[in-house]
Amino acid sequence: VGFWDPAGFTSDGDAYEFRRRRVVEIKHGRVSMLACIGYIVPEFFKWPGYLSVNNGIKFADIPNGLSALKVVPALGWAQYVGFCFQMELFAAYQDDKEEPGKLSSRLVVGTTDVKTVFNQYYFGTYGIPNGPKQTDPEIRKKKLAAELANGRLAMVAIIGMFFQDGLTGSAWGDWA
Prior knowledge:
Elements: H1 15-40, E1 50-52, E2 57-58, H2 74-91, E3 93-94, E4 103-104, E5 107-109, E6 112-114, H3 137-168
Antiparallel strand pairs: 1-2, 3-4, 5-6
């Protein structure tokens, strides 16, 4: 993927802003890729058992797409938001000293980063904590370019799924 900036966001030459935008682009691309998978998989697979035993809601009772927003209990959404918050701040942290997309862990007490044996890991290949790293620079460059391209496509795809689902009630449309 070559450099492409039709809106001229980087015309001022600010290296900090370019890096920040690249970090955000990688993060949004990764989240969008997961969101696309999360939209597609429930069409074919649902977990067995209960989402909420107290409310009697089974995983099979949850509709696909945007209509799930009305069915999942508020506490379930609170758990989801809490998980995202924890990942953003602690488990999948983008350190300013690392290249964009290279995530690590951190533990914060007050305003101080605390380094311990349990929270000093980096995500290796395929997001495996302390997993093997890609050492060949050419292969690494090619894979990072593929991740950027796939992330950009996923960002467009998930927005398209949201719009189609909002308009028709199904992300896939009625092909009959």
